[in-house]
User: What shape does this take?
Amino acid sequence: MAEILVVDDSRVMREMVVACLRAEPYRFAHAASGLEAIETLSLRPFDLVVLDLNMPDIGGLEVIEFIRGQDKLRSLPILVVTTRGDEESRVRALGAGASEFMTKPFTPDAILASVRALLGEGVASTG
Assistant: This one.
């Protein structure tokens, strides 16, 4: 069963991501900040991170850089889900090491397809 860390400072957004993926046999952990995400990733393994870029303490780009800088986390798939729809944000996130970039609002089908693809379960689509 895949372990997914959902990182967003909005509780509603974290719950929305989980609701979109609930039909699959995934287990979820939540982090409300970049710092909490880094702490959680240091304590246990995950198969995927769903990550917002906009957070009040440590931003999503810094979380990506932390993950890619750790030997044991370097290959961890990262799905960025953000309100930043501009090309610069996309390029910066993917350049920092994000596996895929998706803008909010997203459709349940789009996020499910992306998660399945990143976990090696199917073909990705973006939304």
In short: Residues 123-127 have pLDDT under 50 and may be disordered. The domain at 2-118 is CATH 3.40.50.2300 (Rossmann fold). Residues 8 and 52 are 5 Å apart (CA to CA). The first helix runs from residue 11 to 21.
